[in-house]
Amino acid sequence: MEKRNLRFNKDGKFKIMVVGDTHIKFTDEVKMGDYLRMMDKFAEDLKPDLVVFMGDLISFKHYKDGKVIDATEEQKRHEMDCLVSACVKNNIPFAAVLGNHDHDLGEWQAKEILARFNEYENFICIDEAGVTGFGNCNVTIKHSDSEKDALNLWFIDSGCQSPLNDGYASVEVDQIAWYEKTCDELTEKNGKVVPAFLFQHMPVVEEYHFLKETNKWNPYAVKGTVKTFKKYYKLDKRTGVKGNMGEAPCTPNVSSGEFYSWKKKGDVKAAFFGHDHLNDFIGQVDGIYLIQNKSAGFHMYGDGVRQSVRLVTVDENCPEKFETRMVRYQEYFGKKCDSIKGFDKIPDRHRMVLRRAIMIITTILSIGILSYPVWKIVEKYI
């Protein structure tokens, strides 16, 4: 299938809308409605030149009362149509990487999702890599006034579980070899290294560079999820990282050398990740931006009514100095939401502080220190 070419606009700009985890489920039309309302508005107002979906896309199955409910063909089609509805209605090119939950049911699930994507004319990815995973590819964006490549986009399948059942999977060695070979070919074709952005679902373990150890009493402490990072952490602003962290980076336990490969080739200026629903921080490690994207869906745990997309604006003459910001549901619709009610509307970081405060109070009470005055405070104010 021939895919449309991407090109910088006449003003030399190109806008990418990055859409974090959606987890679309056919069983909840109310949550689907909130997602569609948000995406329609964002597509209309932000006018992106490309939309990238960051994995954990649609469900195909649902669990209720301990039973597995399979989606029918009609329901699968409905899930996919809703996922990309804003792109189709506004004729916006879009791309996608697969998440770990897009592999949950086996290879057939990943293959079927990609096959359904390819039925849409404005889906730009072609899986030509012939390596581990599905949908590995690269797409170049041409200069506004020539056929030269101004920016290259990598789309990588970061897999599901480690073959050793040792946490999440790492990008495989053959994928890295394909990346390096293709990067060399692009460099030879263009006479120089082509700046690149990379998109994959699973973050790399190098994100722990942005964290520093703290104690569990800290209101913003999160517990590490990686074998070698099992203590409590918070963002270390001294590293230059900006944004929010509501959960520890959920990375593979070990690196397969992917980040080192990016450094060696020197093309990747920014790598974008999904997977962690509550994180939207951005920082640099060894000159490469590592960028988290908060979830955009309403079907899973999230951050109050702060479902978001990330808008990235790139200049063809200096792609590494891109501009980016998070655009949140709450900015457009306030607290009005059909599927999120009551306590669940409180942003997760505020709930973290509340939970930590309750933990401190109950610990003091259990020790018996100042138990009577503390109880009076709890009764009066909480």
Give the helix/strand layout.
Blueprint: E1 6-7, E2 13-19, H1 29-46, E3 50-53, E4 61-64, E5 67-70, H2 73-83, H3 85-89, E6 94-96, H4 107-117, E7 137-142, E8 149-156, H5 173-190, E9 196-200, E10 211-214, E11 222-223, E12 232-235, H6 258-265, E13 268-273, E14 282-285, E15 288-292, E16 308-315, E17 323-328, H7 329-333, H8 348-367, H9 371-381
Parallel strand pairs: 1-7, 2-3, 3-6, 8-9, 9-13, 13-15
Antiparallel strand pairs: 2-16, 4-5, 7-8, 10-12, 11-12, 14-15, 16-17
Helix pairs in contact: 5-6, 8-9
Q: Briefly, what is this?
A:
The chain has 382 residues and is an alpha/beta fold.
Describe the structure.
By secondary structure, the chain is of the alpha/beta class. It has 2 domains: 6-340, Purple Acid Phosphatase, chain A, domain 2 (4-Layer Sandwich); 347-382. The chain contains 9 helices and 17 strands. The protein has helices at residues 29-46, 73-83, 85-89, 107-117, 173-190, 258-265, 329-333, 348-367, 371-381; strands at 6-7, 13-19, 50-53, 61-64, 67-70, 94-96, 137-142, 149-156, 196-200, 211-214, 222-223, 232-235, 268-273, 282-285, 288-292, 308-315, 323-328. The strands form 4 sheets. A 7-stranded mixed β-sheet has the order 1-7-8-9-13-15-14. The protein has a 5-stranded mixed β-sheet with strand order 6-3-2-16-17. It has a 3-stranded antiparallel β-sheet with strand order 10-12-11, with no helix packed on it. Strand 4 and strand 5 form a beta hairpin. The model is unreliable at 378-382 (pLDDT under 50).
